[in-house]
Each structure stands twice: as structure tokens, then as C-alpha cells.
Amino acid sequence: MSDEKRFYLTTPIYYVNDVPHIGHAYTTLACDVMARYKRARGYQVYFLTGTDEHGQKVEKAAHAKGETPLELADRVVKRFQSLWEKLNISNTDFIRTSQERHKLAVQEIFRIIEARGDIYLGEYEDWYCTPCETFWTETNLLDGNCPDCGRPTDKLKEESYFFRMSKYQEQLLAHIEANPDFIQPKSRRNEILSFVREGLRDLSISRTTFSWGIPVPGNDKHVIYVWFDALTNYISALGFPHDNDGNFARFWPCDVHVIGKDILRFHTVYWPTFLMAAGIPLPDKVFAHGWWTVEGQKMSKSLANVVEPNMLIDKYGVDAIRYFLLREVPFGLDGDFSHSALVHRINSDLANDLGNLVSRSTAMLSKYFQGELTTACKKETIDQDLQDKFMQQVGVIDEQMDALAFNKALQSIWELVSAANKYIDDSAPWALAKDEDQGERLGTVMYNLLEAVRLIGLLITPFMPETGASISRILGLDPDSQQLVEHDRWGLLQPGTTIEKAAPLFPRIEPE
Ligand code: ME8
Questions:
Q1: Per-residue DSSP letters for 144-165?
Q2: Cα 446–451–455 angle (5° rounding)?
Q3: Pick the CATH number of 339-487 from 2.30.30.30, 1.10.10.10, 3.40.50.620, 1.10.730.10
């Protein structure tokens, strides 16, 4: 099936030395919305997430707890998986770097690059930041500490395999220049361009000082550097190198790696040069989103302000959290999480605008027609205007989704919610109901209104799957059969359908 529409997207794989927080949930959620949207548009989607389990940081954390690294990983991985379930994440696959399929792929890509002459054995001496799993040169350090996290670094001298990254500087620059969408948003692209222009050094890609990792093929004194290992997850999950199920051939190159801004360099310098050296095509796009602060402060264990997603979901409901995280901040910029902003969004956008639209519309249909839809046979200009607005906006939203502009897409959907609410005010069904001659007109208004509700339900489904399904059920439709690709046209509700008055979708929350 060569004309099949395919889409492959990935989250970073999360370290298992930390339990999941709102930042991890954000990246995974954004990918989920995109995956659901693309599926609804008729794409075959491969949506990958997983855990990064090797490296010194995980080894140290495990020893501190009296566990083996794998015991620690087995325990923490469950926390990630249960959170993804609770958050309604629809991933296709979950890769763990401790899996055999992954080990095989990492060793193979190492072997390929070595055979092509771009890996050599040398000696390494530099400053290492264990929490960041990153080497720094003397000049990089800030007062002797890691320039990223500010923590102390250790001087390490060891025999190491090196990747000839310097050789790929020009090729990488040419690629970034020729593909303006490769790194997004644009500000991030500029940051990487200037970094690469300053020059690339060869990269140490093995360690001998600890053992929790994948052995270098043919020299198991060395384990492979955790970032070389971790980045390879994006192809190991697809079945590289043997590709028994054909997923690598079907889905690679990846459409988008979604990551946080903190790990941009690994994804736009290291990963592409590894791939170039191995002769594997590069991903189409790397999109780096911003970071969340909490009530104006950096999230940190020491401040005890780490936002725990399970608690939020229990308190406010999964769709409210999904909505808030993607609506509040433009994807790509930093944002601040606060309970008051969350409560405000729930009350104004969800309970008031959307919730009221659905309850008013179904309540009026129930009151005026005992819930039975009639045909829309008495059309006026405002009906056509409403329909045109909806049809036009469906295209706009599609472009916004393609650009991962989730907050804009939600704004566009809410313009439709407002347009439908305004349609009620302008057509004044309560006045029509008083006039016996206006029965057909009233039926037409009701039909259009519920059709607007149907389309809004369809458009919000990737963001709020439970609410979208509730709206389908309210309208007497089977949620599983409702897909944008077939149902994004106006006028698909069947006259004669009976629709009951809906219970409120979102209860109002009293600010604390
Ligand atoms: O970096 N705001 O894993 P990690 C927004 N294992 N997003 C945040 C965030 C915040 N405050 N804090 C974390 C790693 N994130 C590597 C990745 S990929 C081959 C290997 C998100 O557990 C953000 O997406 O430290 C960031 O990139 C990711 O969590 C890092 O997770």
C-alpha cells in the first residue's frame, strides 16, 4: 500500500531515576494529541514513547536505594506506564532501553559507523557532570561547575571510543540550512546554527568507569555512552536493523521528534550526525517545546513544588488537564503552571463556553421537539454564515495542527464555540417557539446548532477524548465511528434522531 498515509512521532525517553511530573506529561500529551489528530485524519500512526534506563545516573540512583539498576527501572517504568494510561495516552509502542531489541540496534549502529571508519579508540580527559551525563571542557565550566545545572563536575580521564563528529559539521550545516523546518521553533534553529558554526569536536561515545549500559561490540570493558544508546531508541523500536515487521521501512524517517528545549543539541547535532555516519536518512523535524515553571518558580525537588500529574487528574479530571496544558501556553514557549489559571480555564472555557453550549442546545431540542431532530428546511443567511465559518475553520485548524500550534488550534475551535453560542442569541429560538408559524424555522435552527455541537465534538476529540466521546453519545452517535477524515462536513446528523437533554460536561469549580 504505497499510497498509505503514515505518520511517525516520538517523545523523549524518560530517565527512570526520577518519577513522572508535569513536564514529562506535557511532552507525552502533546504527542498524543498529534497522534490522535493524525489518526482521525486517516493516517497510520506510529507513536513511540519509553524509558531511558542506562547510564551512571541511573546506576548511582539504584545503588543509593539498595537496588540493582534494573530493579529500579522495573519499578519506575510502571509509574510512567500507569500515568500514561490515566492520561489516556494512545502510544503504539513503549521502548525500554534495557530491552534486547534495543541493545541489538545500538550495537549494530555502532558497528556500522565503526566499519565506515568514523569511530576510533582514543583517550579522553575532561570534566563530567553526572546528573546531566555530559562532558564539558575546562572553558565551558562556570566556576568549576556544570554550565547547565550548576552542580560540581568531576575530572575524568579514560580510554574511550570517539565518534568523528567534526567530520560532519559542514554536512549538518548544509542540511539545517536547506531544510528550514528541520529544527523548530525558529529561535531554536538559530541557536543550533550558531553552535554548529562554532565547530564540532569529536565525541566520546563510550565509558569504562561503570558498567550499567550496552557493551561496545568486541570490547566489553566499555559501555556505550548513554546518549548514543538513548537516541537509537527511535529506530530500535521500529525494528532496525532486521525490520522483521517492516515498521522501519514503513515509518522511518520520523515525521517529528518532540522534545523539551533542554535536549535540543542531542537531537539536532548528535543524532543527525550519527545517522549521517550510518547512512540512515534524517528525521524530518525536531520540535523543542518550552519549560513549565510552577507558580512562577522553577520546579525542583528541593522547593517541593513538583507538580504531580496523578493528583491533578484526580482533582480536576483528565480532559481538563489535557486542555489546560495545551491551551495555556503556545507550544515552543515557556509557561507557568498555577492552580488559579487552571481553575479559571476550566470555569470559563470548559464549564461556561463549551458546557453551556451543549446543555443549552440539547435542553432546547428537548423542550421544543421532545428531543427529535427535524430537517433543516428553512434556511437563512445566518445559517449559511455559520456553516461557512465551520468549514473554513476546519482547514485552518488542520494547518495549525500540522505546525504543532496546539494553542492556536484550540483557540480556533473555541471561536467556533463562540460562533455557535452567538448563533443561539442571534436566532433567538425562545422567540421562534412562541410563534406557531415558525416551527420549521425553529427546527432548522435546532438542527444547525446540534450540527455545530457535533463538529466541535469531533474537533476537540484529539485534545479531550472523553469529552469528544461524550458529545458523540449525547448525539446518538457511536464515538468509535466518528473520524474527522469522513465526518468533517456539514449536515451529517440524521433528522429523526432523538437527542436527550445532556447533563453538564464540566462542573464549575469553586476557586479555593
Ligand atoms: O532528558 N517543563 O530524560 P528526562 C517541560 N532521557 N518539560 C519538561 C520539564 C519541564 N519543567 N521537565 C522535563 C532525558 N520535561 C533523556 C532523553 S531522548 C533520546 C533521551 C520534559 O527524564 C522535556 O520533554 O530528563 C524534557 O526533554 C524531558 O522531560 C526530559 O526527560
A1: TB-TTT--B-EEEEEEEEEE-G
A2: 150
A3: 1.10.730.10
Mean pLDDT calculated for residue range 471-489: 94
Distance 250 CA to ligand 1 centre (A): 27
Q: How far apart are CA 43 and CA 69, in angstroms?
A: 38
* pLDDT > 70? residue 371: yes
The pTM of the full predicted model, rounded to 2 decimals, is 0.95
- Tens of pLDDT, residue by residue over 394-407, are 999 999 999 999 99
Among candidate residues 168, 169, 202, 173, the one with its CA nearest the CA of residue 190: 173
- Measure the CA–CA gap between 509 and 345, rounded to whole angstroms: 10
Q: Vertex 70, ends 229 and 243: CA angle to 5°?
A: 45
ω into residue 185 within 30 of 0, thus cis?
Answer: yes
**DSSP code of residue 481:** G
Query: What is the C-alpha to C-alpha distance for residues 497 and 475, in angstroms, rounded to an integer?
Result: 8
Choice from 10, 11, 24 to test ligand 1 binding pocket (greatest atom count within 8 A of CB)? 24
Which three three-digit cell numbers place residue 99?
530491552
**Exposed (0-12), middle (13-18) or buried (19+): which is 195, by Cβ within 10 Å?**
middle
Contact 107, 217 (CB under 8 A): yes
Q: Which residues contact 308 (CB under 8 A, 6 or more apart)?
A: 21, 22
Cβ proximity of 28 and 89 under 8 Å:
yes
Cβ distance 216 to 223 under 8 Å? yes
Per the rule left: phi > 0, alpha: psi between -120 and 50, beta: everything else, 169 is alpha
Mean pLDDT over residues 150-172, rounded? 94
Residue nearest to atom 8 of ligand 1 (CA): 23
What is the spatial distance between Cα 381 and Cα 321, in angstroms, rounded to a whole number? 38
Radius of gyration of the chain (CA): 26
| CA of 260 relative to ligand 1 center, distance in Å | 6
Residue with cell 499510497: 3
Ligand 1: centre distance to CA 20 (Å): 10
- The yes-or-no verdict on residue 1 having pLDDT over 70 is no
The whole-number average pLDDT for the span 460-466 is: 98
CA 162 to each of CA 95, 123, 203: distance values in angstroms, whole numbers, following the listed order: 26, 9, 5
Distance (angstroms) between ligand 1 centre and the Cα of 510 equals 33
Q: What separation in angstroms does the CA of 181 have from each of 61, 200, 406?
A: 38, 22, 17
323 pLDDT band, cuts 50/70/90, is very high
- Crossing angle of helices 69-86 and 309-316, in 10° steps, is 20
pLDDT at residue 190 tops 90: yes
The structural domains of the chain, with segments of one domain joined by +, span 339-487
Average pLDDT over residues 466-488: 95
Distance from C-alpha of 134 to C-alpha of 226, rounded to nearest angstrom: 10
Whether residue 200 has pLDDT greater than 60: yes
